[in-house]
Amino acid sequence: MTKILYVEDEPFLGKIVKESLESRQFEVCMVADGSDVITQFKAFQPVICVLDVMLPHRDGYALAQDIRQLAPEMPIIFLTAKTQTEDVLKGFQAGGNDYVRKPFSMEELIVRIQNLLQLTNAKPVLVAPNGHIVLGSYTFYPHKYELYRADNLRKLSHRETELLSILAENRNFTVPRRDILMRVWGDDSFFNSRNLDVYITRLRDYLREDPALEIVTLKGVGYLFKCEV
C-alpha cells in the first residue's frame, strides 16, 4: 500500500480525509501537531506528504523545508485555506510540488496525489540516515549533499542534490524536462529553464570521471541519465 503522511490539525476534516484515502487503499499516518511530524516522518517512511499549512508549533512551510533536508525528492502537497498568490508562491518556494486550496473535493485531492505519484514513479524516496546511492564509481549521499569518488568529496548545493536525486531515481529512463522544472523550481518559466541547463552542465562536469555515466539531452523531451553499472 502507498504510504501517505497526512498532517492536519482539524480533527473532523482529518478523519474524513484519512478514511477516504484509506478506502482507496492508501496507508495513512495522520499527524495533528507540527512538532511531531519529523519524528513520524522518519518512522513511517512515506512516499508522499500532504501538509496543512496552519499547524500548532511548526507550520507546513517550515515542515516542508525540514522534509526536503531529509529527502530532497519527496513529493509534497500543501492543503490550505490561504489563497493569495504570495501564499502559493511561498508554498512552492518552501519545497511543495502542488498546492490544493480549501475547501476541496476528495476526488480532486486523490487525482493530484495519483498524478504526483506517477511523476515520481510511486516508490519510496526517503533516504535512510546512513543511506547512499551508488552511481558507477561515485557514491551519492543525498541527505548530506555529498558526492564521493574514491577519496574525493564534492559538496553539492540544494538544487544540485535535488536534480541529481531525480536523475538517479529515474536512471536509464527518460525524465521530461517540464517534470524536472516543476519538481525543483515549481514552474517551467524561461528563466528557470535556463537555470536547469546550467545545473545539468555542472552535474555532467561532476560525473565526467566515469565514462559509464552520461546525462543525455533529448531535445524537446527531457533527459536520460545513463548508468551502465
Automatic annotation (TrEMBL):
One example of the protein's molecular function in GO is: transcription cis-regulatory region binding
Q: Which residues carry this modification: 4-aspartylphosphate?
A: D52
Keyword Secreted listed: no
Recorded hits in Pfam families, A to Z, give: Response_reg (PF00072), Trans_reg_C (PF00486)
Domain Response regulatory, by residue range, is 3-117
Locate the OmpR/PhoB-type domain: which residues?
130-227
Question: Biological process (GO) annotations?
Answer: regulation of DNA-templated transcription
Q: Identify the DNA-binding region of this protein by residue numbers.
A: 130-227
**Keywords from the named record:** DNA-binding, Phosphoprotein, Two-component regulatory system
Any one GO CC term of the record: protein-DNA complex
Name of the protein in question: DNA-binding response regulator
Organism of origin is Runella aurantiaca
Taxonomically, what lineage is the organism? Bacteria, Pseudomonadati, Bacteroidota, Cytophagia, Cytophagales
